[in-house]
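Hello support,

Our group uses your service weekly, and this is the first time we've seen a run hang past the timeout. The protein is CoA pyrophosphatase. I'm not sure whether the cause is the sequence or the server load. Input pasted verbatim:
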Amino acid sequence: MTVPHSVIETPFAAEALETRARQRLRLEPPEHAFDPARIPERGDHQLAPMLSPDGALHRPAAVLVPVVAHRGDATVLLTRRASHLRDHSGQVAFPGGKIDAKDASPVAAALREAREEIGLASERVRPLGYLDAYLTSTGFRVLPVLAIVEAGTALTINPNEVDVAFEVPLAFLMDPANHQRHAREWKGSLRHYYAMPYGEHYIWGATAGMLRNMYERLYAE
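Update from on-call engineer: The timeout came from a worker crash unrelated to the input. Re-ran successfully.
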């Protein structure tokens, strides 16, 4: 008997992703995630060792990795930072930012930032677990929170922080064939980094590095 295509579950359906996440991730922050005495294994310094600053300078941050649960294959919701911002203007990013003292947890920080940046209602989000702490070249120690977002969730873009929100197929981002390694000169040295160009969107640096970590944790054999 032929199974209708609409009910065939692929590895990139939201339900399949959630099953993998429940098996391989935890909803408790990784041990030593913000310990200044320990340099995270994951970060921009993996491909560019000159970018690893002193651990005491790391600032705790959290981002939401929002997977939209469309029927069939899911997508990942990303933003392009506002072009007028002083830092990282125009770059593709996850919703998120530094963890404030009032935030009960990194999950709470990521949800708060997503609400502030793109109007994503927390009640439409189901956190699945943490990826590995990621050290950025600007000194942020970021905890990515993988989460499922209900399809059809309305967004309200904050133009002070974000130019646009867009979606990329999870299947594209979790295909290692799309994990390119690019390089550019940075302060007299050649800096290497991951890049995942998708249409008009150039996904690179920390965002691409966290997506690569997501692939390694959930899909690599």
